[in-house]
Amino acid sequence: MTLFNNLLCPLDQEVLVHEGRSMHCPNGHVYDIAKSGYINLLPVQKKHSKDPGDSKEMVSSRKQFLDSGIYDPIITGLHSFLFNGQNESAVLDAGCGDGYYLSKLIEENNRQSAQSQSIRNFESVGIDISKWAITAASKRSKNVSWIVGSNANIPVSDCQFDAVLCAFGFPVFSEFHRVLKSSGQLILVESGENHLLELRELLYPSIKEYRQTHMNGIDGFDLANEEKVTFKFHLGSQDEIAHLLSMTPHMHKAPYEGRQKVQELKQLSLTADVVIRSFIKS
Ligand SMILES: C[S@@+](CC[C@H](N)C(=O)[O-])C[C@H]1O[C@@H](n2cnc3c(N)ncnc32)[C@H](O)[C@@H]1O
After folding, report:
1. I need a surface site. Which of 8, 44, 143, 274 has the fewest CB within 10 A?
2. What is the pLDDT of residues 218-257, one digit of tens each?
3. Taxonomically, which superkingdom (predicted)?
4. Ligand 1 pocket check: which of 55, 93, 129, 179 to mutate, most ligand atoms within 8 Å of Cβ?
């Protein structure tokens, strides 16, 4: 079990002290560490709903889809963004879901370190508002500090990370800026113009015009690098198609008729089109 050193109490922002199976702040707020090693730093007072974030079913669908390895090409792209020449890196995955990206990045880092015979230390923290996501994540890797918490109030001291990753997530740029070290990088993974186009064509009567996000920049950050990762993949069963649909926002946004069409398919060939952009804290 790994727990990051500079975690803050979500109620009074004091540094938490680790003792046995819990963490506590000087004012007596205590947070238990779950059996699988994660810590819940989202107290009831800070929740806007009873079960915030992705549901148990969505997390399970995402996990089954990602476990197929279909999105692995995104990892190779991400790894080169994260370790551009650095030997040490502290990384936060903000909205980490079931922990696929961080666990895969650790594997990729170990593989590349072994090949080049130079050890690159990689300290990582994954935060998600969904307790289901963090429960699943904590089973993927014991080498990550997994935290139930919100991007809107990241329970970590200022200037701790070399990189903040936000993949298909809910970015809160002021918080990302606060927890990044000076000149640290924010890495955004977002859908490109043709991402899952074949699925969207089935779901919607017409496809919305694509608009690149953050065209006018992000306050406190400078765009440094951009890479597109595009590949085709095939889903050969209704179960696989259902898992993909359930992990996308289309599950709730698409009209009933479109979802019915997709629920009748036995196979589907698709395009993954992902944009990875890095921004440097200015
Ligand atoms: C589309 S999923 C992406 C998960 C993961 N990054 C991936 O690509 O597999 C978005 C995730 O953001 C989480 N989330 C939503 N609001 C959040 C918030 N305010 N703070 C942290 N996580 C949040 C959801 O629970 C969900 O796991």
Report:
1. 44
2. 999 999 999 999 999 999 999 999 999 999 999 999 999 9
3. Bacteria
4. 129
